[in-house]
Amino acid sequence: MANKDFPRVEKYLRKYGKFIVKQAKKIVKAKGKKDKGVLLRSLKYVIKDKKGKFDIEFLSAKHGDFIDKGVRGLGKGILPKPSTNAKGEQLKGSTAGQWGGAKLRPNRTYIDAETGKRKRTPYRFKTANIRSSIMESFVRRKGIKIGDMSVKSMAFIIGRAIKAKGIEGISFYSQPISAFAKKFKKEIMNEFEKDVLDKFTQRTRKSGNI
Fold first, then answer.
1. Comparing 8-12, 23-27, 115-119, 146-150, which segment has the lowest mean pLDDT?
2. Residue 193 and residue 199: Cα distance in Å, rounded?
3. Which of 29, 61, 126, 175 makes the best surface tag, with the fewest CB within 10 Å?
4. Whole-angstrom distance, CA of residue 143 vs CA of residue 39
């Protein structure tokens, strides 16, 4: 239902909401996070009007905030050591080494919508394993194959790797909100002033002073 007192503000907020959602979907696609499309389909905005006070809320699927802000990993301590021979040399085909290397960085950050600066994610993994049924479904859906390794084994290895590394925060909402913040404040204020002026003009005409 349209707001009669601030129609310009409401119209602008709808335009802004559509813009942010569009940018968020672009980021999700660019980062390869669309998978089954659940997250993409869930991205939308809602405008709430409480006695003339507007509030815009951006929505996503339950797991959306984890993708937006990321999840801190548990580090290489949960990974098995690389298989080695009698000389201590890593055996060919051992995958443990690549997941547990020195480049492993389990700390994850995201762009804060208000400040535009990076902050550490408030989320972190608590257990070393991801439910096997979830990872096995993921492996089959992606068609992942590693030699003669079974789906169950691949699911375990990949699941452990994700838990160790954590999940990258792609800031699909906070990034465009932060980038557009100054322009948004300026433009929303302009629309507000126009609404106030329109309302004043209408009242003045009704009183016969114009």
1. 146-150
2. 10
3. 126
4. 21
Whether the per-residue pLDDT at 21 is higher than 70: the answer is yes
Instruction: Read off the amino acid at residue 134.
Output: I
- Please classify residue 37 by burial: count the beta carbons closer than 10 Å to its beta carbon, then call 0-12 exposed, 13-18 middle and 19+ buried: exposed
Task: Tokens for 208, please give them.
Answer: 């016969």
Which residues are within 8 A (CB) of 93 and not within 5 positions of it... i.e. 6 or more apart?
147
Q: Is 31 helix (H, G, I), strand (E, B) or coil?
A: coil
CB proximity list for 42: less than 8 A, separation 6 or greater = 59, 60, 61, 64
Domain boundaries, the chain: 1-69+168-188, 71-167
Which of 190, 200, 199 shows the shortest CA–CA distance to 15?
Answer: 190
pTM: 0.77
